[in-house]
Amino acid sequence: MFVIATAGHVDHGKSTLVRALTGMEPDRWAEERRRGMTIDLGFAWTTLDDEHMTAFVDVPGHQRFVSNMLAGAGPVTAVMFVVAADEGWRRQSAEHLAALHALDVRHGVLVITRCDLADPGPAIEQAREQLDGTGLAGMPVVAVSAVTGQGLGALRDTLRDFTRTLPAPRPGPARLWVDRSFSVRGSGTVVTGTLASGTVAVGDELLLQPSGRAVQVRGLQSLKTDVDRADAVARLAVNLRGLSAGEVRRGQALVEPGAFAPVATMDVRLIRSADDLPAQLTLHIGSAAVPVRVRMLGPAAARLTLATPLPLHAGERGLLRDPGAQQIVAGFVVLDTMPPRLHARGDARRRATRLSAMSDRPTVLDEVSRRGAVRREHLVTAGVMSRLGAAPDSVITAGEWLVDPVVWKEWAAALRRAVDEWAVSNPLSPGLPPEAAARRAGISDPRLIGALTAEAGLVLDSGGIRGRETGIRFPEPVRRALDEVRAGLREDPFGAPGAEDFARLGLSRQHLAAAVTAGVLYRVADGVYLLPGAIAEAIRRLIALEQPFTVSQAREAWGTSRRVAVPLLEHLDQQGATRRLDTARRVVR
């Protein structure tokens, strides 16, 4: 299916032309018929060839209804621009063109209507002059009369050829901007809109943004025909299960779960803007129109704070309109849906400089290089990568994070310094705790510490992060006490000393932790310490038992007490050496 929006001044014959092409009445309301003008969005469709259906979104041309026009033009990328031969280019013609130019609509047909009332030549020349320098310059022109039928055949042929040249929809997750909501007896809530990307099928669960409300697709219609599935681009009526018609309205969107995040603040590149903009404007994107607060960052960059969050991706285009002056003041391209805070003097100017160097369609590599490190889910919800997309080979992938290689090496070096500084200040400490290490080294997420310790040539164990060579020098009394403990364990490998033994020898928890760090002892659990080779011996003895075995059988094989046997078995479970079958029995893996 192809979806085309109409554009042009009020009463230039847009609805009449759509009716002549489709045989359908696009005007929705009795008020529209009475006044002879389109107030709200109308829809009609026809087959221009044997394969594809073409739907027309008929938008109002009157100044008072420009916001409705923007709701119709926003979700589509092709236009039928209408200018009357007897009136020529008018005020709303210019405003509609400004909107289409800012939205980067580059595909269209110029139709000169009412050529039975006037020579279309002057209107064509005037329109071409106005179109020059926009994305619609040079589009094909057809002169018609919907009354006499003159030129309608040529227009159908031109539209057919034109639609065949339209680019395929940009790949992406499903999003349908809602332009109507109503109830149908026996079916419930139905919304209509243009599916500009992705696929929707009966039974799908979608999210209604910005509320995040989960809804289910109960049924689908495309141009009044029931379908099980629809691919972009398509005009759809979606029967929803899970909410009433009063809970959904124009400007909301049905989106694929996990593919969009509601955006409340974003940095944008401005298009055809003045040197400055009013602080309060209305933002139009898709079918949404929301108040925004504008903070100028530079001549062509601004930060927009939305009164209502919207599901947006980087690279999308929208409009800023001054409702008081009743004019579009700027178009914009979304550059960053996760902008940094601006606190210090000069932050805005520096931010504008960075934004000026950013691409309108950022890549994964662009975003990772710019941010240093970013979660995969953020790039998915920002529209920079797909949920299943692979990161470039030049990017470090660590769990949910994508990290620039330079930043990764900087983090590793900072981690080494933090561990070295900790070791000097805490000579008997088993190691630097991971959370503290992340703070000291400026690492975004403590969960990255595991991968970074290997990069930094460090060791991470239950005692924290330490160097491979600890350099611990025990005081002589401590060294003698540890030698006595080790001698006893060599005689009885699983006869772990108790708390009273350590107290008698003058060994504190800090001493024992340092002994573990130095490789002198192995910590099984709090208060249970063995020699480093005891784990391998414990497993060897368990293998010799008939499988499965009980705690009592393991205790006998080790020649120890339950105080040692129970935590040692739990430790082996955690290490994956043994596996519980039930509350009483285990096996060696």
Word description of this protein:
It is a single chain. With 589 residues, this protein is an alpha+beta fold. The chain folds into 5 domains: 2-164, Rossmann fold; 175-255, Elongation Factor Tu (Ef-tu), domain 3 (Beta Barrel); 262-361, Beta Barrel (Elongation Factor Tu (Ef-tu), domain 3); 405-467, Orthogonal Bundle (Arc Repressor Mutant, subunit A), CATH 1.10.10; 477-588, Winged helix-like DNA-binding domain superfamily/Winged helix DNA-binding domain (Arc Repressor Mutant, subunit A, Orthogonal Bundle), CATH 1.10.10.10. 31% of the residues lie in helices and 30% in strands. It is built from 18 helices and 31 strands. The strands form 8 sheets. It has a 6-stranded mixed beta sheet with strand order 2-3-1-4-5-6, sandwiched between helices. A 6-stranded antiparallel β-barrel has the order 7-8-14-11-10-15. Strand 11 (213-222) and strand 12 (225-227) form a beta hairpin. Helix 3 (66-73) packs parallel to helix 4 (91-102), helix 10 crosses helix 11 (434-441) and helix 17 (551-558) packs across helix 18 (562-575). The chain is elongated, with a radius of gyration of 35 Å. Residues 27-40 and 61-74 have low confidence and may be disordered.
